[in-house]
């Protein structure tokens, strides 16, 4: 995919087509990262100003994350990423911050659905061998995460076609606007 295909805001870049290859640095976090780690509850008053709240994404897990991450970088978690409240702000501000995708060994169910609904790729794979600052390449078509630093390759659980379509469209609301309703892929 050409660089021109990645035009737009950093958050829009995260919702590229299924043929996309995403590339960025790994920001590693452990197990049980909650929505409070992602979107600090003490900043709940910013919920009506999501771009401002995005400046604080992951602040309670890594105070320097938002300031140091680059558009396209990956959040890499362990087990049960996104547990806690059903706060849709959490995946939305991850996307607004420009994160390319979230990779984890498992996700809290409501976080996973909210992420797909806002157009944020969330991929379940073995993240145990990924280290902080490893350079990663995610091939959404092949279903592989390549660690360019170590040479390791980890397959990820492929997303169902309907979820890929929603991601391609930029999230569920954008999907419904584009199709005039909920459109299942043919095939």
Task: List descriptors.
single chain, 187 residues, alpha/beta, Aconitase, domain 4, seven-stranded mixed sheet, 28% helix, disordered N terminus
What this model shows, in words?
- The protein has 187 residues and is α/β, with parallel strands linked by helices.
- The chain contains eight helices and seven strands, in the order αβαααβαβαββββαα.
- Mean pLDDT is 86; it is low at 1-19.
- It starts with 9 loop residues before the first helix and ends in an 8-residue tail after the last helix.
- The protein has helices at 10-13, 35-38, 50-54, 65-68, 89-97, 109-118, 161-168, 172-179; strands spanning 21-28, 74-76, 101-104, 122-124, 135-139, 144-147, 153-155.
- The protein has one domain: Alpha-Beta Barrel (Aconitase, domain 4), CATH 3.20.19.
- The chain has a seven-stranded mixed sheet with strand order 4-3-2-1-5-6-7.
